[in-house]
Amino acid sequence: MSIPILTYHSMNITNNTYSGNDHVALAADLQMIGDLGFRVISLRQLVDWHTGYLSDDQMINSLVITMDDGAWFDYYDLVHPVCGMQRSMFNIIRDFNKTVSTNKRVQATSFVIASPEARLSLDKSCMVGQGWWNDQWWSDSVASEIMNIECHSWDHVHPMLEHVSQCNQVKGDFRFINNYSDADVQFAKAGQYIGQILGRRPDFFAYPYGEVSDYVVNQYLPTCVSEHGYLAAFTTQAKAVTKEDNIWALPRYVCGRDWNSKDGLRELLISCLE
User: Fold this and answer.
1) Local confidence pLDDT in tens for the 274 residues of the chain
2) What is the CA radius of gyration of the chain?
3) For domain 5-273, is the CATH number 3.20.20.370?
C-alpha cells in the first residue's frame, strides 16, 4: 500500500489559472479527489499507519494534504497586488467541508517557519511588506481542526536572509544542516518557539526545499528525539509513502512540480492505486 501526500505553496500566485495559482489548484483538486474515491486523512493518521498503529484496511484510498512556509495566504483571504482577491487555503478547505458529509471532511497541515525575525524579513523581501507572515493565526487554525500547524525549520536557511542558522552561512540548501549545533536551532529551537505559541510542541517537520543531510536523517533525528520531540519528517521526493520509507524522510508530491493540471493530478493519484 502507498499513500500520497500532496503539497501546496499558498504564495505560488502568478495568475488566476490552475498552473499559475496553488489556490485555484487546491479548490479544483478537492472536488476531483473526492470524485476519484479518495479521502483526505490527517498527517497524524498517516504516521500512525506508517508506524503500525492503524491497519492497511483503515487507509484504503487515502491521501494527505500539506502546505509549506506558513504565510498569511494559508489562513487569510488577501488581495494579491497583481492577481486580486485570493481565497485562503484554509477557507477553500472550510468551504469544501461545508458541502460534504462529516466523514469526507478535509484536514490539512501547514508547515510554518518558526523564527519571527526571519518571517519579518522575508515578508519584506519575498512578499509586499504588509506583515503577512506572522504567527497570530496559528492557534486559531489548530483549534478549527481544519489546518494543523507543524514545523518547517527555524529560518528555512533562506537565501534572502542576511544571516541564517548555518555555521558557514550556506543558504538555500538544507543539506548543509549537517552538525548538531545547526540542527539544534533548525529543529529543537524551532519546535520550542512553535510550542510556546500553540501550547504544545510540533510533532512533524518538513525539510525546506525538501532537502536533508545524511547527518540529520541517520544521526540527529533518530538519536535526539528527547531533545527535538518530532515523530516524523518529510522531504519532497516525488513518490507516495510506503511503510518501507524512512520515518525521517517520508516523501511528498509538490503542486506545480509534480503535477500542474487536474488531469495531471488524476493520473498521479490513479498511479498510486496500481
Assistant:
1) 999 999 999 999 999 999 999 999 999 999 999 999 999 999 999 999 999 999 999 999 999 999 999 999 999 999 999 999 999 999 999 999 999 999 899 999 999 999 999 999 999 999 989 999 999 999 999 999 999 999 999 999 999 999 999 999 999 999 999 999 999 999 999 999 999 999 999 999 999 999 999 999 999 999 999 999 999 999 999 999 999 999 999 999 999 999 999 999 999 999 988 6
2) 18
3) yes
What is the distance between the alpha carbons of residues 211 and 113, in angstroms, rounded to a whole number?
Answer: 15
Residue 3 is placed in which grid cell? 499513500
Residues 241/206, Cβ–Cβ less than 8 Å = no
Cell numbers 489562513 correspond to what residue?
75
Do 237 and 245 form a contact (C-beta atoms < 8 A)?
no
- Smallest Cα–Cα separation from 76: which of 155, 6, 134? 134
Question: For residues 242 and 227, what is the distance between their CA atoms, to the nearest angstrom?
Answer: 27
By C-alpha distance, which of 139, 142, 140, 109 is closest to 40? 109
126's CB contacts (< 8 A; 6+ apart) are 11, 158, 160
Q: In Å, how far are 128, 182, 186, 204, 214 from 178, measured between CA atoms?
A: 33, 7, 11, 19, 7
Would you state the cell numbers that stand for residue 82, as one nine-digit string?
A: 497583481
Contacts (Cβ under 8 Å, ≥6 apart) of 101: none
- Residue 77: exposed, middle, or buried by beta-carbon count in 10 A (0-12, 13-18, 19+)? middle
